[in-house]
Specification:
By secondary structure, the chain is mainly alpha-helical. The chain has one domain: Orthogonal Bundle (Cytochrome Bc1 Complex, Chain D, domain 2). 35% of the residues lie in helices and 0% in strands. The protein is built from six helices and no strands. The structure holds heme C. Heme C binds next to α4. The site of heme C (HEC) has 27 residues, from α4.
Length: 138
């Protein structure tokens, strides 16, 4: 029943049936600006794998990880638990435009990042910061 919702995310990218979609984002991002955009996410998300869990799953090495499957995070919504896709920059760009559109019953209380440039900046930052082993400078 809930399958179509995350499938809609893949369809929005014009790649039905492909679990891993990637290509350049439509807008090029700036990681330094993106660090500031991530400020709105830090309340709930850490970029470190060993950080105490906050209100959301940690985002360490999030690109390439299966969505909704972090073992020690217990508050995924059904939509995320059922999801069968791997996070890529392109998918995250599409989803963060309006997170509720793809997962209406999500437990993530965030409006996402509606502005395309700010979204691209955030993703440029995450690409760098999510693969570091230490917490990036704030
Ligand atoms: C109020 C807390 C909160 C804020 C703010 C928030 N998130 Fe989340 N996030 C969550 C929760 C809770 C989930 C799990 C959602 C679900 O299962 O429906 C989640 C899920 C995610 C996931 C999926 C992780 C996975 O394991 O598949 C990503 C990626 C993510 N958030 C990124 C962000 C980004 C980027 C921002 C900032 C624009 C942000 N979040 C803001 C709480 C938050």
């Amino acid at each position: 029943m809930k399958r179509w919702r995350w499938a809609a995310l893949l369809l929005a990218l014009g790649a039905p049936g492909q679990a891993q979609v990637d290509s350049e984002l439509p807008v090029s991002g700036d990681a330094a600006r993106g660090r500031l955009v991530f400020g709105a996410c830090r309340a709930c998300h850490s970029l470190r794998a060993d950080a105490a869990l906050g209100n959301g799953p940690h985002l360490h090495r999030i690109f390439g990880r299966a969505a909704g499957k972090q073992v020690d995070f217990e508050h995924y919504s059904a939509g995320f638990k059922d999801a069968q896709f791997v996070w890529t920059p392109r998918l995250m760009y599409a989803w963060l435009a309006n997170p509720m559109a793809f997962f209406p019953a999500t437990t993530m209380l965030s409006p996402g990042v509606p502005d395309p440039q700010r979204r691209a900046d955030l993703i440029a930052y995450l690409k760098q910061a999510s693969v570091r082993d230490k917490e990036p400078d704030r």
